Amino acid sequence: MPELNAVCTPNSSPPHEDGRVEHGCQLTVIAEHLAVVATVELPHWSTCDLAEASRHLGEAGFELAPETEGGWRAAGLGFLAPVTRTALAG
Fold first, then answer.
1. pLDDT at residue number 31
2. Where is pLDDT greater, at 14 or 74?
3. Per-domain residue ranges for the chain?
């Protein structure tokens, strides 16, 4: 099974000094070699809301990897978390 990671990033670069963005955020699940598995556009978000991002992952058929302590971690301009497919994922 390929390793999967979810990334929550702003759609505008660079964000304001307080972390707000102009054009929403994007939630992307990527596999090895950066292959995009799923994308969720979040155009009304001004920052990455990690609790809501986790909920959107569930709706898309993914969940935070159970062996991951704390889930999301800061990565560049956004956040990164290992994920696994759920029964909903195709």
1. 93
2. 74
3. 8-75
Q: Which residues contact 75 (CB under 8 A, 6 or more apart)?
A: 7
Which of 38, 13, 34 is closest to 24 using CA atoms? 13
Going by C-alpha positions, the residue among 8, 38, 6 that lies closest to residue 21 is 8
pTM: 0.79
Terminal CA-CA length for the chain: 13
CA neighbours closer than 13 Å in the CB half-sphere of residue 23? 7
Cα separation, 6 vs 58, whole angstroms: 11
Pairing of strands 62-64, 36-42: unpaired
pLDDT in tens, 40-60: 888 888 788 899 999 999 999
Gyration radius of the chain over CA positions: 13
Which tokens hold the place of 9? 């990033």
